[in-house]
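Lay summary

Proteins are chains of building blocks that fold into shapes. Our project writes down both the chain and a compact code for its shape. Here are two examples, one after the other.
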Amino acid sequence: MDEPINENKNLSPKIPSSYFTPLDDTHHFDNERIAAPSLSFYQDAWRRLKKNKAAVASMIILLLIILVEVLSIWYSPYDPNLQNVPHANLPPRIPHVNINGFNGKAKISGVWVDKYELVHVPKDLNYYFGTDAFGRDLLSRVLAGTRVSLLIALAAAFFDLIIGITYGLVSGWKGGSVDTIMQRILEIISGIPTLVVVILMLLFIRPGVTSIIIALGLTGWITMARVVRAETLKLKNQEFVLAARTLGESSLNIAVGHILPNLSGIIIIQTMFTIPSAIFFEAFLSFIGIGMRAPNASLGTLLNEGYKTFRFLPHLMWFPAVAICVIMITFNLLADGLRDAFDPKMKD
């Protein structure tokens, strides 16, 4: 039996025309508009780095340290090697600070004694970090020692960028027998401890900055070379390299113009990790007596002098130790931040 036909079944409610708004002629342009601004690789890395508060704070501290060290070349409180024996072993005295240990007083036989008054030091003469056994200003010597450490760090970074990158790039790009021979040479060099190289150089060169820089120049760039080689082996078979070869680009142009820019992130990170290692290496050599020699100041020699009298004159060790700790910690924190910033897989 046929069902009765509902005449209102296919009827839809009438929508008023006032509900509709005519579109503008240019409405289709918004469909392809990019809401966020376009960022380059380095701009995106900087955006990520700024979110890491520890890395940003470390970078600011390092910039301040470098600025102070550069200015201290011309505006040092005293000559770091100037001896003033009557003012020997004075504790720190900071104006308007009334804290024992920082107001010119030292503990002698359980009693706090103003050592500045004992040796008749003028009221307007203050040693902010105290003095050593020869009356030399410790602040000036810490500034000079930090300058030496930063010079060593700059040399290590230079060798990484010049020797390490070139060696690793050539080894990875050439491959085959060339890569095999270059890696065997690298293994032979890395098999010789850097400390042994420094000791052998003492037969021909006086201990000091020169011997340490030469030692870093012989062995310090090996890690950078291996990292660059590994990344080059991974990148040289990528599509953009094959496209450059197809277009007739020379090997040198491809390596320098295409592969090297893609290695910039890992190069910056590895360099930042190399710098604190070089600073610690210099301090270690100077501490054991085969690096910087007295009367020249370095953080290692200051630590060597300070630990001998640490129980009686703790300021001689505390200030150099704090200086080297701050430098190494800030470099490592900045390196960690750069590693996260340059990692494209890192999530915001």
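And here is the second example, written the same way.
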Amino acid sequence: MLLKQKMLAVGMAVGLLIFIIETVRRRRLREEYAWLWVLIGVVILVLSLWQGLLRAITSLLGIELPINTVFFFGLMLVVFINLHFSVKISQLTDQVKRLTQELALKKEDPPERS
């Protein structure tokens, strides 16, 4: 990897980590999800600095080029994140339905007289 490419990759990884920390600090991202994004940023940083590791992983998986390994893991990450969010959305949909039904039942109950 050329020095310019390495510097760009390291800069983007550090920028991602700073953005994640700032987003959590401003309460725009819950801590529940922050650990995943911090882990992704650290992995990007490590692979940017340690090209031998990326080549070893590429060789171990039988992939021809290191960039294909990066794209493969990126694609798998997007698939897993989408699956996770689909599960969360399903849970929240069920919760909203249940709460709406409970609220409708409470509105139908006549007020108690003392």
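What can we say about the second shape? The chain has four helices and no strands.
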